[in-house]
Amino acid sequence: MKILRPSFILFALTLIGTLSACSAKKHDLTTDAGTLAEGERYMNDDFYEEARKQFYRIKTEFPQSSLQVQADLKIAESYYREESYKTAASSYEEFIKTYPGRPEIPDALFSLGMCYVQQMPSTAQRDTRATAKVVDTFTRLLVDYPNNSHIAEAQKHIIEARHQLADKIFEIGRFYEKMGDYDAAAKRYAEFVDQYADNPRVGEAMEREARSLRRAGKNEQADAVDAKIKAMKK
Are 206 and 184 in contact (CB under 8 A)? Predict the structure, then answer.
């Protein structure tokens, strides 16, 4: 009995899946609704590039269609589902600029924030620009749309992102401290305390700030920080 190789089996399964997607019932591509539905069919089968072709057809071939808004959202969604998060973020940003005041804006803002969540680094030592955008985007969502359905999740991501940003400032302070640049270290610890007063490491940051100030020869400022530490412990 001939044994089929795993590579052949994988190829056959892929071919069957592709043929199944292609053989599924197609929609009327002479209408905007049919074109949108066709794009959604492709996207549900993970054929994102083919899906976008249909969504872009609505923009070019049906310029007066009321489905233009949905097509733009679907384009952004397709990039997100494809894990092309930077391109997805650009698409959501463009949508928000193009359709201000639309009821879809809260969901678009949330999706934009999620694009940045997916781009957050694993540690604070790396580029945290996406982390800062998580805070900015979700804060905008909470302020502008306080009753939207994504409040709880947005707040959770803000907390996580703020912790990472706080860790970055703290670690920069420690770096300067180790290098003997105590004035720069004190400024970083002061920045940490000022911006992240709710962080559990704020006490340690203040102690390091006071110590760094003394080593920098700024005893009066160090005394002021020590006084604040004592007041916190009462």
Answer: no
Record the pTM.
0.83
Q: Which three-class secondary structure string do you get for 59-122?
A: HHHCCCCCCHHHHHHHHHHHHHHCCCHHHHHHHHHHHHHHCCCCCCHHHHHHHHHHHHHHHCCC
Burial string for 224-234 (b: 16+ CB within 10 Å, else e) reads ebbeeeeeeee
Domain segments of the chain: what residues?
Answer: 25-82
DSSP element (H, E) containing 24: none
CA distances (Å), origin 146, targets 89, 149, 150: 22, 9, 9
pLDDT by residue (tens digit) across 123-179? Answer: 888 999 999 999 999 999 999 999 999 999 999 999 999 999 999 999 999 999 999
Residues in the chain: 234
**In 3D, which of 227, 222, 226, 224 has the Cα closest to residue 212?**
222
Report the C-alpha gap between 92 and 82 in whole angstroms. Answer: 14
Residue-level pLDDT at 8: 47
Q: Which of 14, 89, 86, 82 is nearest to 48 (CA)?
A: 82
